[in-house]
Amino acid sequence: MQNIISLELISATSENGFSLDELVFRTKELFETEAMAGFVSLILQLIDERICMNIVQGKSDNTGQSCCCNERFEYHDRSLRQFRTSVGTVKISWRRLKCVKCGKTITPLRDFLGLAPYQSKTLELEKLVTEIVSEQSYRRSSTHLESIGSIPVPKSTAHRWVVQTDCDQIDTGTDTFSLLFADGTGFKRRPDKDKRISNRGELRVALGVTRSSSVVPLGAFSGKSWDEISSLVKGERKNKELVADMLVSEGETGLVKSLAKLCNDSQRSHWHLVRDLNYTMWKDDAGKLERKQKQKELNAVIGIEIPEEDFEKVCDDDKKDLQDAVNSAESDLHKLIGKLLEKGYKIAADYLNRSAKNMFSYARRWLETGIVTPRVSSMIERMMRELGRRLKRIAFGWSEEGAAKMARIIIKRFTSENQWEKYWHEKLRLLDNVMLALKTIKVQNPQTLGR
Ligand SMILES: [Zn+2]
Prior knowledge:
Blueprint: H1 20-56, E1 73-85, E2 88-99, E3 105-106, H2 108-113, H3 123-135, H4 138-147, H5 155-164, E4 177-188, E5 200-209, E6 215-222, H6 226-234, E7 244-249, H7 253-259, E8 263-268, H8 270-283, H9 288-302, H10 316-342, H11 346-355, H12 361-369, H13 378-394, H14 400-415, H15 417-427
The structure holds zinc ion (ZN).
Zinc ion binds near residues 67, 69 and 102.
């Protein structure tokens, strides 16, 4: 169906000069507040008239609508509907038709557009709101949405949309990853005195790392035990199918106990180790300089690199060297622990002692099997920092489920923006079924243009 639509505008400008900025500003204002939404509404109305007429005249039925009694439809009434969209509020008074025999009513345009019965916003707006909300704090995003002008979405509405959206769903697949990374991060949740829920929530994240070092989200959870998370991450995999070769974590007992069974081996996250040495030494009242110094020392001790060549190509001498490096690193680590104890930093010393066990699993595993385990990649490190930073700002006031949803959206977008865009492209059904082109922009009183 093709139409030529003309748009009539009045422009009145001062003869005494005006700023280019004001012209641009007023143009934007006009289009954002009225013209774009009005244009969409008009096209909808044209379509509505056409399809309803076709149905009433029995010509064709593009919507697949027919009544059970196989009778014709007649015009019944109109009903006013509004849709929030990113170009403003689209209003349409769409027709309802009635079966002449049984009186059943239908709304052809709704089915034509594939809208849900009580849908009141477009999915493209849902995408926009989800993205804005997952990038900044709630209060700020709500103000931001309002400042776009055409989309006044109050905070409570945006919150509800995010809770209802299914764009956060994660399919854990059945692949076996190189690494399974799991971690928890604290956030301030919405407290509930009656249910004895404090404001201290913990968000738990599981990520997979493939052999080619790309990071895949496996889930973000709130209010779930590691055992529950373990079976969710396992997903559709059969009993003996592993999720990953190596589990990498900060080594919390509950976490390791539940998730280690999904992997062959378990490895301390070096990133956590160095980070938490700072924290435990701080608890021991060590000064900032010394904490930095010891973090450096620890980094130097644990940073054993696995040869880059294929396992088979590495000669036995080099393998022996690596084995020696692991042994001496372990002894250096115990020297470091000794130094901490001497200084009276007991909490930090205990912490390293407990962690020592699985600190070099990745090197041992390579020596035994030739399987390369990437140490926690910088990607995961950046991702966890980013998540913590954003959750601190945005999660405040979220329910547990809301915060977990938000986290899933963040990790999905962070790990693969492409997948995210692809998902929405399909969901929005951008299939070249609508084509628009600007035909002319010309003035109606051409004498004002001069010769
Ligand atoms: Zn009927």
